[in-house]
Amino acid sequence: MNEDEALTPLFARIGETGTARYTRMPDGELLAETAYRIVRDETMLDGNARLNLATFVGTWMDEHADRLYHDSFDKNMIDKDEYPATAAIEEYCWRILADLWSVPDPSDVIGTSTIGSSEACMLGGLALKRRWRAARVAAGKPADKPNLIMSSAVQVCWEKFCNYFDVEMRLIPTTDEHPIMDGTGLEDVVDENTIGVVVLMGVTYTGAYEPVAEIGRILDGIQERTGLDIPIHVDGASGAMIAPFLQPELEWDFRVPRVQSINTSGHKYGLVYPGVGWVVWRNTAALPEELVFKVSYLGGEMPTLALNFSRPGAQVLLQYYRFVRLGRIGFTAIQLASQRVAQFLSKGVSELAPYELLTDGSDIPVFAWRIKPGYTDKWDLHHLSERLRIRGWLVPAYPLSGEQTDQTVMRIVCRNGLSRDLAEDLLRDIRTETAYLDELEQPMPEAGIKTTFHH
Fold it and tell me: What PANTHER family does the database record attribute to this sequence (predicted)?
């Protein structure tokens, strides 16, 4: 490297005057400023995270959180001996969640942080499988054909779990009559090999809650008739951080006796940057001991359980920051503000002639809509999605699941940071682009139309 290179204007330097798209490591070095600019410029065509209304993942935290993140991004969560204070804060967090979720005995509970809800779901599923297997072996029965019951609207992480850990995935398809899993048909799919039922507190496709307590009652009836004692895992990736604040009277958590474990995403409505999830079991008996590993901690032992080993500790500290900074009052205020934005937008969309709502944001601050059957043959929701993308908004259009795959919907996720002003701008753009599409005299071309990310 020429010692005078730092004096060369930035975009005339080596590294900027040729290709920056390396698929093999370059031979020489670059100035740090030049390398930074190359990487930064490569991301310029990424969308604006705040305008990404497809994702549930948080895109904003305050400046104090940013400073805390900067202060702690080098901490490795698994190294509990080196970072005992961070390890203790992890435990504070899952105990706070256990309390939020009405755990029966705070002295007999266990939980852990994870990279996100997908890992948390897999730990919850593994616990169900191991408990079922232990019971089968103790009874002298075969334990080689486990199955797990869930709605066809589950997030793909459950398909991964069943694939990775050799569990039969039994889906209850969504239908127009039963757009969520409400317990109908459960008795037809459960059997002695069923390790559990996954219930969604916030369906990815529409934002609706599945009725945990009602499904628990149906499983009670099945046990009375058949003797099958089937537990519930609640996938509360989003709703488990909404319901305690906006619907505190709703019984969905450990108040339902069959609920053995609950997961959530700290980086969704837990209001933290990407990289943290949580899972809590109602008691230590719900988590088979073989899944818990002991590590040295301040001269003693501390339990650890996770699929990942080395993982960032910073997001755990950010979660604790959120809990102590906001408290119940602050969390309630933020989630209520997001819900009000969702209901403002859903009302505005419902007033437009082409559309009808599937959900209105009354559960989690998410709503979905579709074009009324037979309304038009000139355009569909993929075209509206493309038109909104031109204006900077990412609003996904995608097919529903189960027996509803012939129906395309759009969905908006209202997160902390989507202000009422931004919502008014979005609604204005939806009205404008809908009017544009409604004026078409010929069908829109199909080129370039595709299903967009909606998880």
Answer: GLUTAMATE DECARBOXYLASE
Q: What is the CATH number of the domain that holds 266?
A: 3.40.640.10
Q: Output the pLDDT for position 124.
A: 98
113 falls within a domain: yes
Q: What total number of domains does the chain contain?
A: 2
Task: Examine the domain organization and report whether 140 and 265 are in the same domain.
Answer: yes
Residue 353 lies in a domain: no
HSE (CB half, 13 Å, CA atoms) of 393? Answer: 26
Which pTM does this prediction carry? Answer: 0.94
End-to-end Cα distance, the chain: 45
Tell me how crowded residue 428 is: count the other CB atoms within 10 A of its CB. 12
> Distance from CA of residue 209 to its chain's centroid?
14
Residue 264 resides in a domain: yes
- Give 129's contacts (C-beta < 8 A, 6+ positions apart): 146, 165, 167, 195
Cβ-contact 84, 296 below 8 angstroms: no
Burial 135-172 (b: 16+ CB within 10 A, else e): ebeeeeeebeebbbbbbbbbbebbeebbeeeebebbbb
Amino acid in the structure at residue 124: G
Q: Which of 303, 323, 343 is the last residue of a domain?
A: 323
Separation CA 149–CA 312 (nearest Å)? 32
Which pLDDT score, from 0 to 100, does residue 455 have? 56
How much is the pLDDT for 237?
95
